[in-house]
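Field log, afternoon session.

UNIT: design team B
ACTIVITY: writing a sequence onto a fixed backbone
BACKBONE:
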């Protein structure tokens, strides 16, 4: 088993006034050659957006983009014709493929919005852009891990163009879970949203990140009430 630990306080920080963003991996003006990616996980941004502000229309291509609101409402518009508002409990994914433009704006003029923006290198390049969105059953997250992202459109969660699976759980203190990896050669990057956990012997706290690979499974123990996001991704980059 191989591991790496990213404590919350070691993340890159960008403060633009209207936007405060913590970067687990190199992004924009934050560059750390030791934090370029974890396998095919390229970006994990923990964003706080001021009321009435946001990201204007901008392009992407050949990237899988997952947005997970943690609080507040985020208005989304894109060149595929999608106009929607995603809220806490929703998960959104776009396969940018050959190219897509989109905007993400705080839908409220009074309250901030907090969300995770995650980028994954795609399995195949230049696919037709695709959009998917789900609303989670919050009860299904209590005491267990609920699948929220998958490569299979007939499986649970939003669909992306990569052999990656995400799980989200709200765990009570004392909960113990084993997570078996779904595909050989994959690794898991764990991101603690709230609370204290122990993952395969490593103690973790709020907003810590922990990567594990060269293993078939990881063990999870909630030391307090905790919210956790597991991102299982291929460790080999496409074409490598």
């Amino acid at each position: 088993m191989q591991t790496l630990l990213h404590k919350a306080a070691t993340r890159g920080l960008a403060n633009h006034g209207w936007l405060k963003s913590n970067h687990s991996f190199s992004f924009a003006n934050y560059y750390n050659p030791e934090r370029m990616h974890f396998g095919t996980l390229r970006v994990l941004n923990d964003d706080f957006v001021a009321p009435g502000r946001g990201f204007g229309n901008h392009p992407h291509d050949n990237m899988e983009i997952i947005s997970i609101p943690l609080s507040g409402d985020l208005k989304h518009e894109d060149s595929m014709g999608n106009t929607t508002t995603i809220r806490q409990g929703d998960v959104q994914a776009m396969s940018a493929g050959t190219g897509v433009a989109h905007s993400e704006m705080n839908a409220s003029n009074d309250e901030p919005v907090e969300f995770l923006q995650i980028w994954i290198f795609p399995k195949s390049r230049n696919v037709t852009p695709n959009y998917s969105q789900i609303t989670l059953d919050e009860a299904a997250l209590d005491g267990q891990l609920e699948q929220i992202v998958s490569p299979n459109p007939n499986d649970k969660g939003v669909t992306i163009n990569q052999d990656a699976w995400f799980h989200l759980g709200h765990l009570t203190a004392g909960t113990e879970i084993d997570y078996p990896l779904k595909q050989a050669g994959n690794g898991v990057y764990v991101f603690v949203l709230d609370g204290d956990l122990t993952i395969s012997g490593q103690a973790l706290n709020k907003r810590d990140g922990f990567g594990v690979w060269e293993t078939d499974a990881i063990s999870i123990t909630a030391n307090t009430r905790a919210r956790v996001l597991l991102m299982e991704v291929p460790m080999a980059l496409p074409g490598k």
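LOG NOTE: The chain is about 0% helix and 55% strand.
NEXT ACTIVITY: expression trials, pending approval
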